[in-house]
Amino acid sequence: MSDTLLELRGVSRAFTVRGKTVQALEDIDLVVPQGEFLCVVGASGSGKSTMLSLVAGLDTPTQGEVLVDDAPVIGPGPDRGLVPQAGTLYPWRTVERNVAFGLELLSVSAAERARRVDWYLAETGLTEFRRSLPRQLSGGQQQRVAIARALACEPEVLLLDEPFGALDVQTKEDMQVLIRQIWLDTGTTVLMVTHDVEEAVFLGQRVVVLASHPGRIAAEINVELPADRDLRVKRTPEFLELRATIEDLVRAQHRKAAAAG
């Protein structure tokens, strides 16, 4: 087995809207090694969420293929865990039963299920809320439950679709610190799409910038910041320079798309 865990080969996706073909993604080639935290940024219309849907197996490429461990993705599977922007928790299930949901669909013993639920509740700071219902939680706590639920199945790839976009600034930064610590603790490969460049630079080891209309890879930037970074890194010259560089790239792609449209 190679070090490559996730690969997109020549991936394109077109949709028909009111009788017209709209090219959401065009000829995407992307390799994600085992254990990487990769962030994808781009303006509206760059196909970020479409790409994540293809990797999750919720959609099918018009051309090309998506592979995990060299096997083509043909639908959803436990090797990929998805956390959408809205956590989509089951309102009638307690926190612990939401976290256990995916495990109930797998061949996992009751003892192993209990062990994993306990571990991921502790990892996400939810142990004391295990018997609470989603309506009793804050927005940040609900997203913690969604993350714990996705990770409890121990997927090879965690897919994050702007999961902190609806949160206030303080809660969002708390969640950024949390997800980075979980990544360090578990070694899970993470593919995250976000419109927030600062978030991408703080979290990612690498940032991919997508062009718009159609979505194409415009740039790939390695994030040369300490592995054990905390929020203070956001005030360093290195961080600010990198953020500005990527923001300029996103802005330039957006303007190019607007001029062409």
Report what the structure shows:
Keywords: ATP-binding, Nucleotide-binding, Transport. Pfam families: ABC_tran (PF00005). GO terms for molecular function: ATP binding; ATP hydrolysis activity. This is NitT/TauT family transport system ATP-binding protein. It is a single chain. With 261 residues, the protein is an alpha/beta fold. Helix 2 crosses helix 3 and helix 6 (197-203) crosses helix 7. The chain has a six-stranded mixed sheet with strand order 6-7-8-3-9-10, sandwiched between helices. It has a four-stranded antiparallel sheet with strand order 2-1-4-5, covered by helices on one side. The model has no long low-confidence stretch (mean pLDDT 92). It has seven helices and ten strands. It has a single domain (4-44, 53-195, 202-216), classed as P-loop containing nucleotide triphosphate hydrolases (Rossmann fold). The protein starts with a strand and ends with a helix. Helices cover 37% and strands 26% of the residues.
CATH fold-level assignment: Rossmann fold
Q: What value does the Rg take, in angstroms? A: 18 Å
Strand order of the largest sheet: 6-7-8-3-9-10
What is the CATH homology-level superfamily? P-loop containing nucleotide triphosphate hydrolases
Structural class by secondary-structure content: alpha/beta
The level 1 CATH classification is Alpha Beta
**Level of helix content?**
25-40%
Count of separate structural domains: 1
Number of strands: 10
User: Poorly predicted ranges (pLDDT <50, ≥5 residues)?
Assistant: none
Which outline best applies?
globular
Order of helices and strands: EEEHEEEHHHEHEHEEH
CATH architecture: 3-Layer(aba) Sandwich
